[in-house]
Queue: 3 jobs
Job 1
Amino acid sequence: MNIAFIAHDRKKEEMVNFVIAYESVFEDHKLYSTGTTGTRIMEQTQLSIHRFASGPLGGDQQIGALVADNEMDLIIFLRDPLMAQPHEPDINALLRLCDVQGIPLATNVATAEILVKALDRGDFAWRELVHKYKPGVDS
């Protein structure tokens, strides 16, 4: 499964701690992240993460491109709801794309934990069918 991690500045430590807690679940998946978040996770874990640009420099849009192509299976995006973000339109576009494509998206640790536990149980097998039978692609 393709999983992306995104965290606003004041949520990066929380993201790192979350990924450490579930490192054994994530190690069997292909991981992506925005720049600084991915660097911080890799410094504290043994995980290998494909890093895109930082969010304000287009990282959210790079992950959004994978979502638009239905190549992302799960996103954990720890947002800071109390701080205005200069790239808010990019964030909203990513959230909208997740809704359009039906990509599970957690924006807080409580929801992220529910999704990761489901991932660990194998409850995301339906995503394999999505990859196998992409709408609009001739088979």
Job 2
Amino acid sequence: MEDVGLDYWLRWQAPVCALIFLLPALVSLRFIVTKNNTYTTKNHHLWMSCWRNLHPCWLLLCRLISFFSMAYLLYQTVLAFGPFVFYFYTQWTFCLVMVYFALGTIISAHGCWMLRSLPNQERDKFLKSSVKDSQLQFNQEAGFWGNLMQNIYQTCAGGVVLTDLVFWCLLLPLQSGDDFKLTLLIGCMHSLNAVFLLLDSALNSLQFTWHGLTYFVLWSSAYIIFQWVMHACCFTWWPYPFLEIATPWAPLWYFGIALVHIPCYGLYVWLVKVKASVFPHAYIRVVVANVKQM
């Protein structure tokens, strides 16, 4: 293994690569702090299904099953490979998706409890109404936890697309020999995260806009900063070969990583818009059709 000393970080590639991921992170952070959102998340966006006549308990059940399934899968992964798995972006994003489903389960349960407190006639009217006709008690703006759930949802969407595409289309074809073997567990870790999140997106009423790209960029930048700190302190091995800076091609790799965030996030934006456009408003609540761009 290469000894990582001061000379390693004095290469010309180091400051160039640092600018490539730090500059977008700073721009994203400034955008979040200074720019107002073009939409407002309401309480019922968090736990109501986008499908008319589909009871929100089904969304609650979906989130509950997704959380426990992913928790079991993560437990098996740590059991098989040890805590070192958290050195990888896959496990970072996997845990973030679990946090989303944990928050979603709690908020969905609270929403279903509030809905159950309504008289039967009012409850049926609410379930069949469009979001713009929702009752006042369900039409309040989301608080801290609700907005956190919304932002995590958008971050997860870009993260799972990036994770799975890089693994199946880049890393797996380049792996060879006995150092890497594709197992059922590894395959599930790089696919079920997207499956569960896509299923949730097919059912939920959460809005999905380009504003969430800023959180996605910050998430990936935080991971790269973590890797640089770990590499400078105690590790001499990069978990992903394209993070290595001791090569003339390093800036191109880092630029490619930064650039690929846009199509990865854009793919999920497109999928949400397809859901809104393919099905008529007789089946889809109005909130999904009103997805706006920043």
Job 3
Amino acid sequence: MPIARRAQFARATVLFTIAGLTLAACRKKPAAAPAPAPTTRVNQDSIDAARRAQEERDRAARDAAARDSAARAQARLDSIVNAARATLNAPVYFDYDAADLRDDARGVLEAKLPILTANSGLRIRIAGHTDSRGSDEYNLALGQRRASAVKDWLTGRGIDGGRIEIVSFGEERPGCTEEAESCWSQNRRAEFEVTAGGERLTVPGGAQ
């Protein structure tokens, strides 16, 4: 083979080898693709954080609802107990110069009866009062008869007489001071005071 031809062949071989090496190098570069993996981890952390935040909000909402429900229940109970106390304290009224119980007075006492029955430790004082007409001695005796009439009605329906104290103030403690029937009618009364056992009141039906 002529020398010139051999030289051309050698150069062609070298060029072909270089091209092959370059092509091989280019084919190996895509191997670095797995790098995006940290993005997946970041996304999962965000999802976990969002889930925990939602769980915390849900827990706070449940706690708030439970507190609100308990507060409403306590408010209802307080209302029932306060109504029972008002019933216990409600006075009864009498006709002029009389100690007999009127129908309206019996209705007031009927309302007191289940509360007194449900609270065996409850003790009360019944105070008899009169209007200003008549002597002091007569009015003290009349007030005593009025308080006794109320006590007798309660004990006749099963309330232990040892739980009931009676006292008379006659005309000494008027609820109204005008000299007119509208005031006298308010002063002819028996008043009630809880003297023991009223701190924790049981309402008929089980509420306390």
